[in-house]
From TrEMBL:
Keywords: Membrane, Transmembrane, Transmembrane helix. Residues 3-22 form the Zinc-ribbon domain. This is Zinc-ribbon domain-containing protein. The chain crosses the membrane at residues 75-96, 134-154, 174-193, 200-221, 233-252. The lineage of its organism: Bacteria, Bacillati, Bacillota, Bacilli, Lactobacillales. It comes from Tetragenococcus halophilus.
Length: 258
């Protein structure tokens, strides 16, 4: 004898329906089979979700840059920052290379030297005179600036807020607005590669991307200062972050150029 899965009445072992409530006893077997099927496919579903998750994060940040998106993996911000660094370094290398190539062509046209040899040609890739080594140097320069910027922002918030945010949260907050910036950088990098845009125009876009990113840092610091009970006036926290970042980045740029 067994018991009904619905009402608990005692029924025969071979009974398919409960004589008391009419419950189909086979549903218990179906539920077990569904559970087993779900368990077998869980790894595949999770793998697909991970593969699509950053794209979903990217699209959501395009629609709502300031959304917290609780539940997303903490490394999404690092991915956005990495893409931003790569695109900025690539676009910078291409702008400088195309600019030098234009200067070289100009001197060749006016007969300043034999134009049979072009020392600044880009050759449609990073394989020209300003090749992968130059690209890596530019990338290292941007990484250094970004690390210092994040460090200053996190350090100032750590000292000035009564309940400071974590380092991962700081990184993800600073990356909130990068989906739109990265999309524009990607479009103009491709446009410069196919010679759709001029190097000067792409240089302006690159500088605007830096300006928007710096503005997003100020916005994040201001919001955290308002929400986390700042020890001093939020205005002074924002001003301190801006001044420190500007001074350090200025000296770093001068040292690199010099």
């Amino acid at each position: 004898m067994k018991y009904c899965i619905n009402c608990g009445a005692q029924i025969k072992d071979e009974a398919k329906f409960c004589p008391n409530c009419g419950q189909d006893q086979a549903k218990e077997v179906d539920n077990e089979q569904q559970t087993e099927s779900f368990t077998e496919k869980e790894a595949v579903k999770q793998s697909l979700a991970i593969g699509k998750s950053y794209f979903g994060y990217f699209m959501e940040k395009l629609r709502r840059p300031n959304a917290d998106l609780t539940g997303n993996l903490t490394y999404f911000g690092y991915i956005s920052l990495g893409i931003y660094l790569l695109l900025q370094a690539l676009l910078t290398t291409m702008v400088i290379s195309r600019g030098l190539s234009a200067i070289d062509q100009f001197f060749g046209l006016i007969g300043a030297y034999d134009y049979g040899y072009d020392p600044f040609s880009f050759n449609e890739s990073l394989g020209g005179s300003l090749g992968i080594t130059f690209f890596l140097r530019i990338l290292f320069f941007y990484v250094l600036i970004l690390v210092i910027t994040i460090g200053i922002t996190y350090g100032v918030e750590r000292l000035s807020l009564k309940s400071p945010v974590s380092f991962n949260q700081t990184v993800n907050q600073l990356a909130n607005f990068l989906s739109g910036i990265n999309l524009f950088l990607l479009l103009f990098t491709f446009g410069l590669f196919i010679r759709l845009f001029s190097p000067i125009f792409c240089l302006i876009i690159m500088l605007l991307a830096v300006l928007f990113f710096q503005s997003s840092i100020i916005f994040v610091v201001q919001r955290n200062a308002d929400n986390k009970q700042a020890k001093i006036a939020p205005f002074y926290i924002v001003l301190l972050v801006f001044v420190l970042n500007s001074i350090v980045n200025w000296f770093l740029t001068i040292a690199t150029i010099g």
